[in-house]
Amino acid sequence: MPTTETSSPYLKLDEVPHMPIIYLDNGATSFPKPDQVYRFMDTFYRNYGVNPGRSGFDLCLEAGSLVDETRKLLCQFLGGKDSNRLVFGYNSTDVLNLAIFGLIKAGDHVVTTHVEHNATLRPLWKLEHSGVEVDWVDFDALGWVDPQEIIGLLRPNTRAVVMNHGSNVIGTVQDVAAVGKVCRERGILLIVDISQTAGMVPVKLDDLGADVLCFTGHKSLMGPMGIGGMYVREGVEIELTRAGGTGVKSAQRNHLDEYPWHMEYGTPNLPGIAGLNAGVKWVEKHGIDAIHRHEMALWHRLRDGLKAIPGVTLYCAEDVPGRQRISVLSFNVDGLEALDTGTMLDVDHNIACRTGLHCTPMVHEHLGTDKLHGTVRFSIGAFNTEAHIDAAIAGVREIAEMQMNKKK
Ligand SMILES: Cc1ncc(COP(=O)(O)O)c(C=O)c1O
User: Fold this and answer.
1) DSSP 3-state helix, strand, coil percentages of the chain (rounded to 5)?
2) How far does the centroid of ligand 1 lie from the alpha carbon of residue 57, in Å?
3) pLDDT tens for residues 209-223?
4) pLDDT at 6 over 70
C-alpha cells in the first residue's frame, strides 16, 4: 500500500528550530527547543521579569498569574486534582531529594529497582546509612522489572516504593500501575521518577496509582534547564528538609504548611517556568501520542539499522508486545570503549550522543557494561528526522568496519 500523508508516523511541524549538529542526546536534555519556547521566555522575562507573589504591582501580579497558570497546566497534564499540590523545584533530582528525605525515616523499609538514576539511588544509599532498609529489584534480560517481584518484597513496615517509569539507558517503560494498585491497597507510598516519560508517554497520577510524581522540565516537556517539579497527592505530607522565604505570611517563624509554599523556597525560576509553560503547550499542540509515534518510528529505524551491522551489540532493544518503550537506545561497538565510539561520531560524523554510565551504575553492573565504561546512547527527539537516523547508522557502520579491519 502506498504511504499516504495520514499514515506517515512522522510529525508535521510548522516550525523546525535550527539544529547545529545531528543531535541525538535528547535523553540528557531536549535540544533544540521549539522556537516558541525561546521566544516566550525572552518576551515574558523582558516584560514581566519581576519577583512573583512578593508585591502587589501589576507586573508582579502578571508574573504570579503565569506561575499559577503553569501549575494548572502541569497539574492537568499529570492528572492531578489540586494545582496547589503541583510544586516547582530546580529539576527532578531536586524534588526526588525533597520527597525521599521528607517521607522516609530510620526504621522504614523501601523497595526500589536497579533501573534507577543516581537522582534516586544516591538519596536511598544515603538513607541506608541512617537506618533505612532498602530492597533492590533487578530487571530481566529485555529490560523490564517484574511488578510481582516488587510486590513480593512489601512488608508491614514498608514505607515506600521508589521507582523509575522510563529508563534513560535501555528505554523500557515499567509497569508502575501494577505496583501502584497494590501500594494503594496497602497504604504504601509510591514515588515515581517520570524524568524520561513526562512529555513522551501519557503519565497520569491515578493511572499509575502514584503518590508523588517527580518531573524535570528540560527533557520531553521541552522547557529549559533549571526547572522541574512534583505533584504530591492530597493527604501526602512531606516533612520539611528546607525552609525559607515564600513571600507569604512573612511574620510566621516556621515555614508554611500550606501548599504550594510548603515545598517551595526562595525566588522561583520565573524564566524557567515561562519556558516550561510554552514547552508543555507545544507538546499539547502536537499531541503526546503523535510525538511518541514519530520518535518510536525513528527508534525502530535506528534499532534495525544498528542491528544489521556486524560487531555492534545492542542492549535490551527487543520489543515486547503490550509493553511500552521510550526513544533511547544503548549499544557498543565490539572492542571499543563507549567514549571512543562517541568521540568518532562527534569528530568524524558531526553526531552528538552520550557515552558512559548515564548516572545509572546499577544498569551497567547488570548488563556487564560497567567494565566497558558504559554504553553509547542515542536518544531521539521530536526534531530528529530519518536523515539524522540514517547518518547515525552510517557513522556507526563505518566505525564498526574500521574496528573489524584493525582486528584482521
Ligand atoms: C531517569 C532519570 N531520572 C532523573 C534524572 C535527573 O534529571 P535532572 O538532572 O534534570 O534532575 C534523569 C536525567 O537524566 C533521568 O534520566
Assistant:
1) 40, 15, 45
2) 37
3) 999 999 999 999 999
4) no
